[in-house]
Description:
Strand content: 25-35%
CATH architecture: 3-Layer(aba) Sandwich
CATH superfamily: Gcn5-related N-acetyltransferase (GNAT)
Shape: globular
Largest sheet: 8 strands, mixed
Structural class: alpha+beta
Strand order of the largest sheet: 1-2-3-4-5-6-8-7
Order of helices and strands: EEHHHEEEHEHEEH
Amino acid sequence: MERLIVNQKIELEQLRFSHAFQVFQAIDRNRAFLEPWLPFVQDTETQEDTEAFIQSITSKSGKERDDVFVIWYDNCFAGLIGYKDTDRINLKTEIGYWLIESMTGKGIALLSTRTLIDYAFSNLGINRIVIRCGVGNDKSSAIPERLGFQLEGIEREGEKHQKKFIDLKVYSCVKKDWKMALNS
């Protein structure tokens, strides 16, 4: 899938090597905003670092590849969203997302995440989706909460940030619960 249309303003486009400049510029200009919650920011020092990240995703093929998308809002770069660590045997995946600061508060991450959930359950045969958010990152945690995900617990020291570890809230949703939520 190359594109997913979220609504008239939001479009998800499969991440490509040609996006490296825009992605790097977004990270570089939003370091102070992104760094507390995204461990890769400190290691993204050059556009070549972003190119290596994109290459690590796009070089995989078929079932080994996780789909990652650029989020466009009114044709402007807003952030990234995608599936992570998809387990096709157990039919589960994780969704991760980030937005640049100027794009927050518009419902972009919420609507984009909803679109990826629908797609995973309807088209990819996924049964379980997890979203992990740093404890204290209330804006990020609000997304799975608003989408009806269940808080499973805290993954203690689940992610390394610079020289320390942070705890992660672990949220999940299974296909039957998503279908019930849509029908109610």
